[in-house]
Design a protein that fits this description.
3 helices; 78 residues; mainly alpha; 78% helix
Length: 78
């Protein structure tokens, strides 16, 4: 999910823009709307993405090694 810090940063910038206007009361609604949109988009942090990429890379390496081992065993068994 989108980090709370980024969400707060965007919300604060919007708040600054509308602070002196009649839209000042809408800040809470904007914050909730942004949070809802980001949640629906299923965004992840860069850290979460990097962790999953590392897991995928490791899994791919293990799969390649097992495929190679299977090919060698199949050759020996023939």
């Amino acid at each position: 999910m989108f980090s709370s810090d980024k969400l707060n940063e965007i919300s604060n910038k919007i708040k600054e823009v509308v602070q002196d206007s009649p839209l000042g009361d809408a800040e809470k609604n904007i914050h909730a709307l942004l949070k809802s949109v980001f949640t629906k988009m299923e965004l992840v942090t860069r850290e979460e993405f990097d962790v999953q990429a590392a897991v995928l890379r490791s899994t791919r390496e293990k799969l390649d090694a097992l495929e190679k081992q299977l090919a060698e065993l199949t050759q020996q068994h023939r």
